[in-house]
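User: Could you go from structure to sequence for me? I need the amino acid at each position, not a summary. Structure tokens:
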């Protein structure tokens, strides 16, 4: 076991990796904990593999996992987490935008008893329109939907207790939502302000599609963290609401038509309100049926996988 694992996802960052290695080792030697650095090469085609091979041969504390092709940052971080042996795991970008000198700050916050410490790039050094504006928006939405009030969930510079990362399985682009996922399972999350530097070498790996993907992922995370063990409640609530609205609208319209027909003795026609009311009731019943189907699927899911919908902080006893 080592005390500290550093996990670095890297996709075509050959020029940055040696510089980051030097910065990291300077800081880590100063801290004085035993450490390892795990690079995950996410299918680079710029010679990163040879750069990493050289570093790993030179320094036994460096290891690298080389992906066959580009599987994405979440997959790279997932592989790095599974490889990491440290009691504490720190992640940071390979492109030097995160500053290794912030690592002691993260460690000191973790030592206060937090399971996750997330970096906040308060003075973010990225283009205004393509990065900072969308990031502000998505973080605002993130706080509202997940109930976790942090400013910058997308910053890779974060620290975790080993226990926290053990419960994670990352898919798609979920790495931006790790604090929210862990928060929903009762892990204690804090944030600290960190430095951010402009990218000097290489190019960003994300375009504007990140915004749409991020929004969809956020909806999914919110759904999953609240209803993953009881989807029937979500679909059932929606279904009942629609059915009731449809039923009330239809009934009121019917009373009105009976009045027109019997009291005023005028002709009545079937109008849009009846159609809408039948539509709402049908959709409502379908939603409730979806709820049952998802409920059955989720039960099979929990049976077939080792994923748990709860998380145990500690075991006590026998004394
Ligand atoms: N990255 C990765 N796989 C990918 C995309 C990115 O491992 O498919 C790495 C990338 O090399 C960098 C980090 O994830 O170390 C963050 O990516 P980037 O700097 O391009 O994001 P930005 O800072 O522009 O948001
Ligand atoms: Mg970057």
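Assistant: Here is the amino acid at each position, in order:
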């Amino acid at each position: 076991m080592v005390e500290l694992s550093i996990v670095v996802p890297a996709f075509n960052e050959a020029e940055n990796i040696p510089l980051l290695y030097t910065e990291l080792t300077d800081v880590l030697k100063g801290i004085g904990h035993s450490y390892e650095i795990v690079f995950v090469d996410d299918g680079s085609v710029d010679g990163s593999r040879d750069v990493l091979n050289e570093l790993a041969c030179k320094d036994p504390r460096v290891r690298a996992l080389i992906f066959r092709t580009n599987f994405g940052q979440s997959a790279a971080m997932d592989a790095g987490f599974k490889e990491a042996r440290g009691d504490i795991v720190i992640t940071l970008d390979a492109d030097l935008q995160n500053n290794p000198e912030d690592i002691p700050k993260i460690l000191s916050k973790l030592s206060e008893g937090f399971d996750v410490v997330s970096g906040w790039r308060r003075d973010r050094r990225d283009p205004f329109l393509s990065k900072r504006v969308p990031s502000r928006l998505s973080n605002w939405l993130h706080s509202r939907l997940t109930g976790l009030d942090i400013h910058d969930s997308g910053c890779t510079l974060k620290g975790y207790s080993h226990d926290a990362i053990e419960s994670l399985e990352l898919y798609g682009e979920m790495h931006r939502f790790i604090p929210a996922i862990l928060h929903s399972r009762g892990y204690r999350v804090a944030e600290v302000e960190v430095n951010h530097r402009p990218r000097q070498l290489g190019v960003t790996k994300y375009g504007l599609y990140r915004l749409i993907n991020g929004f969809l992922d956020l909806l999914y995370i919110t759904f999953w963290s609240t209803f993953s063990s009881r989807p029937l409640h979500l679909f059932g609530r929606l279904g009942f609401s629609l059915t009731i609205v449809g039923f009330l609208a239809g009934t009121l319209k019917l009373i009105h038509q009976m009045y027109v027909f019997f009291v005023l003795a005028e002709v009545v026609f079937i109008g849009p309100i009846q159609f809408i009311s039948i539509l709402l009731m049908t959709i409502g019943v379908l939603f409730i049926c979806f709820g049952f189907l998802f409920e059955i699927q989720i039960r099979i899911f929990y049976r077939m996988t080792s994923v748990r919908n709860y998380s145990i902080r500690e075991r006590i006893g026998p004394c």
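One structural detail worth keeping in mind: The beta strands are 4-10, 35-41, 62-66, 88-91, 116-120, 158-161, 189-193.
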